[in-house]
Design a protein that fits this description.
The protein is of the alpha+beta class. The chain has 14 helices and 16 strands. The strands form five sheets. Strands 1, 2, 3, 4, 5, 8, 11 and 12 form an eight-stranded antiparallel sheet that branches. The longest helix is centred in the first third of the chain and has 22 residues. It is globular. The two termini are 42 Å apart. 50% of the residues are buried. About 5% of the residues have low confidence.
Length: 523
């Protein structure tokens, strides 16, 4: 959820001073990116992995601070809700085998939590976009992690919209939410790629276009708060989770979470300028000292970095005082396994680099409205989405997402080669994605198929809810009446426990076998 702050309340003078400092930051950034020494290092890749903590029965475990302390893992930070953590992986060179390296780091983090878990209620770390067992009661203000940043965000949003606010959930559901803690229902795999300043605005546009097909192949969040939803229902949950949508008269000019306002044109500064000029300040904490960052020769620009951490585009520009610009790809879901996430990153990064090569700017090839349409169709319909794609010399064409991804895999391979990724690394990652696409077995598909199998089994009277690997617990004697809500809860719990076990085994999701579908029976 972004950079930390030390205060919760602010004055109007704080806001005015912060706005003035933001203008100064943009000027300093302009000087930095035109310096011949800025952004000259070879490209690197990094990632942040958000995940949920669960009890043996699949329910969320609100013990993030306890688990972080137990693991003594400095890469872990507390996320917005008590059952969330985030692992900040160490950046690696983009050449060679970067995706394997990031997957290995993610694996060590997740297994490290499991190793510490027996001392802490047998908690497991689960990489999943949206935890199926979450309920509205898990996402109230009481669920908010006790850090100044989250309390400051809660306070800032309460000044800008009414409480409670509407949160669309599932195909037709609508809940009343009261807190930014609902963002805990959305866990992402956020990939960072450093980009040279002279390429930045074109690479940013390429990332926007590449995100649609990549998201279509990565769906892993079909049950927001236990309701049937989009293939990647994390997207609408996160976009509505601050309550700044559908609020007539709120004075909010545009939502801070979304696909972005348009193609970026005009050089490396444009994305940063748009983020500053189109979105008012949320957290106006001004550092006490000016000057350069303690770790490098470039200006810290603390106000700019803090402000950008409160503009939640699905692709976000990042300035680093170590001397580079980055694109933060924020749309990919957490999970199902480190290998799956590595493959998703390889495809998205490779395709972005390919679409940037040779002076190409995709903003000249496709209306931005179609790129935005692609994004939401991909989130809703996954591999069956209808997506637009540029066709040089002719009008854009529509493809089924699965077909488009297959056509784009060789292009992603070319992009990875331009980054000097080893051929074997690229082949392994993109082949994994190929098998997922041709089988149709995304994380979302597995969850939906498993839920249907458990539903039919329950309807047939064969209810056995697995609580943890190797042990089962029956909900009651055969003649015990159970409500629809109780059955749904039991099915979602078993789904989550099965998912967690398979995720821990770490085989790619397209190899996971869901329970066999019993013959249909009506409840």
């Amino acid at each position: 959820m972004g950079r930390e702050v030390g205060r919760v309340t602010f004055t109007e003078q704080d806001y005015a001073r912060f706005r003035a400092r933001l203008t100064e930051c943009l000027s300093s950034l302009g000087e930095a990116v035109t310096d011949p020494g800025f952004g000259t290092a070879p490209p690197t890749l990094g990632a942040e992995l958000e995940f949920s903590l669960i009890e043996p029965d699949g329910r969320p475990a609100p013990v993030n601070a306890t688990v972080r302390e137990a693991t003594r893992d400095d890469s872990l930070t507390l996320e917005v809700a008590h059952f969330n953590l985030e692992a900040n992986l160490t950046p690696v060179p983009a050449r060679g085998s970067p995706f394997t390296a990031l997957a290995a780091q993610a694996t060590r983090t997740l297994t490290g939590i499991t190793a510490a878990a027996p001392r802490h209620r047998e908690v497991a770390a689960v990489p999943i976009g949206t935890l199926p067992t979450l309920t509205p009661a898990d996402l109230t203000a009481r669920a908010l992690t006790d850090l100044p940043r989250y309390h400051a965000l809660e306070r800032a949003w309460s000044r800008r919209r009414s409480v409670p606010f509407d949160l669309p959930v599932g195909a037709r559901g609508l809940l009343r939410a009261e807190s930014v803690a609902v963002q805990g229902a959305a866990c992402s795999w956020q990939v960072h790629l450093t980009v040279a300043p002279h390429l930045f605005h074109r690479a940013f546009n390429a990332a926007q276009l590449a995100t649609g097909p990549a998201l279509a192949a990565a769906g892993n969040s079909p049950f927001p708060l236990g309701r049937a939803g989009w293939q990647e229902a994390r997207i609408p949950v996160y976009e509505h989770g601050f309550g700044d949508r559908g609020s007539p008269g709120s004075g909010i000019r545009r939502p801070r979470v979304g696909f972005g306002p348009g193609w970026m044109r005009g050089g490396p500064l444009v994305a940063f300028e748009v983020a500053v000029r189109h979105y008012d300040v949320l957290l106006p904490e001004v550092p006490s000292a000016d000057g350069h960052d303690a770790t490098g020769d470039w200006p810290a620009l603390e106000e700019l970095r803090l402000h950008l951490s409160t503009v939640w585009w699905w692709n976000r520009p990042v300035y680093d005082p170590l001397g580079h610009l980055r694109i933060e790809f924020r749309a990919l879901p957490s999970g199902p396994t480190p290998l799956d996430m590595a493959a998703n990153a390889a495809f998205l990064v490779g395709l972005t680099v390919f679409l940037t090569a040779g002076g190409r700017d995709v903003a000249q090839e496709l209306p931005f409205a179609l790129a935005r349409t692609n994004f939401y169709r991909a989130a809703r319909d996954g591999l069956h989405a209808s997506l637009w794609w540029p066709s040089p010399g002719t009008a854009p064409r529509e493809y089924e997402a699965g077909t488009l991804v297959e056509e784009l895999l060789p292009r992603a391979r070319e992009g990875l080669a331009l980054l000097s990724v080893d051929a074997d690394e690229a082949e392994a990652m993109l082949d994994l994605l190929h098998h997922r696409v041709v089988t149709g077995r995304t994380g979302a598909w597995w969850q939906q198929r498993t839920r249907e199998a458990l539903r039919r089994r329950g309807a047939a009277g064969g209810e056995t809810v697995e609580r943890e690997p190797g042990r089962t617990a029956r909900p009651g004697p055969p003649d015990t009446p159970r409500s629809e809500r109780e059955r749904d809860s039991a099915e979602l719990a078993e789904l989550t426990v099965r998912y967690a076990r398979l995720a821990a085994e770490a085989a790619p999701v397209h190899t996971w076998k869901p329970p066999a579908l019993p013959l249909r029976s009506h409840r």
